[in-house]
Amino acid sequence: MKKSYILPIFLLIQILILKILRSFPESVERFYSNGFYQFLSKPLRIILGKIPFSVGDCIYFILILFALKWFWKNRKSWKSEWKKNILTVLSVLSVFYFFFHFFWALNYYREPLFEKMNIERDYTDKDLLAFTKKLIAKTNDIQNQITKNDSLKVVFPYSQNQVFDMNQNGYENLSKEYPFFTYTHLSIKKSLFSLPLTYMGFGGYLNPFTNEAQVNYLGPMYSFPMTTNHEMAHQMGYASESECNFIGFMSSIKNKNLYFQYSGYSMALRYCLGNWQVRDEKVLKQLLKIVNKGILKNYKESEDFWDQYETPIETGFHIFYDRFLKINQQKDGMDSYSKFVNLMVNYYKERPL
């Protein structure tokens, strides 16, 4: 066998192995997510967490430059040497695919949080309505405590670096109840690619190779703690977007600081209201009447921010990422972000918010 065929064939072998792993989530949970991954990720966070800028973003930038240089250099040889060039691309993809799963992405195949926490998956409109009303009451209360006026939006008083440090309080409190949500060794960075992320419509991402949580620093501050907590959940080894939203929500509302609680409650409420927009707009209109105007002003602030960056780039990237999520065990694709409503409704059915 020619050497040029080894890595492309290895790519096919990896895909087959991952298809088999889907049937063994308990084993992935035990040996990878709670075993090897913990051994691998924590040292990365300890070392890179002390560096003030994003090492992962720098690596991506260099790799993008090398890729562009290679394509430009070989642009004239695609007709004459197409087979060689395709094998080269597949070889690079094979190596990337291996390390992507080795360092983090095997977490896509771990035991679902529904099973881990014994939470039901389905809920009725009645369940959602009761939870949404409960959530509105709580969010209204927090907004009132902060502003002393139900018509004023919440203005965040802390810097983004302060948020990174203060977010740990929520995880510390959450881990007292659920030790498997213990977060250690802070490694959160303001992404150097925040502007491109904004045009793509994302608040952050986890670099799977360096285990740095990258947060878009351009967005509204009231949602910043919840977004950061979401990425911290990814760092702990939770790959599902809905699960990370759920964990991010719980760690936000467990924080002793009211502004951080507001970030969690207001973002969760926004997802619930969005759910009603799809289910029943008449119910949505009735619910909006009892939401404090200050909260709606924060939502408008966020809407205005994202609208100014809306381009076909965002649509195209969302289509790509939707497909990526579906390939990686998240059958709902981009809709999986809002699926954490299922987790919230059923978890808090018998519990106080």
What does this protein look like?
- The protein is 65% helix and 3% strand.
- The chain is mainly α.
- The protein has two domains: 3-109, no CATH class; 113-347, no CATH class.
- It has a three-stranded mixed β-sheet.
- A hairpin with a 4-residue loop joins β2 and β3 (212-215).
- The chain starts with a helix and ends in a 6-residue tail after the last helix.
Summarize the structure.
With 353 residues, the chain is mainly alpha-helical. It is 65% helix and 3% strand.
Q: What's the order of the H and E elements?
A: HHHHHHHEHEEHHHHHHH
Count, helices: 15
How are strands sequenced across the largest beta sheet? Answer: 1-3-2
Number of strand segments: 3
Stretches where pLDDT is under 50 for at least 5 consecutive residues are: none
Shape: globular
Helicity, as a percent range: 55-70%
Distance between the termini: 62 Å
Largest sheet: 3 strands, mixed
Estimate what percentage of residues fall within beta strands.
under 5%
- The domain count comes to 2
* Classification by helices and strands: mainly alpha
Radius of gyration: 22 Å
- Average pLDDT works out at 90
Which helices and strands, and how do they pair?
Layout: H1 3-21, H2 25-48, H3 55-73, H4 82-103, H5 113-116, H6 125-147, H7 160-177, E1 188-190, H8 194-200, E2 204-207, E3 212-215, H9 224-235, H10 241-253, H11 258-279, H12 281-288, H13 293-307, H14 312-327, H15 340-347
Parallel strand pairs: 1-3
Antiparallel strand pairs: 2-3
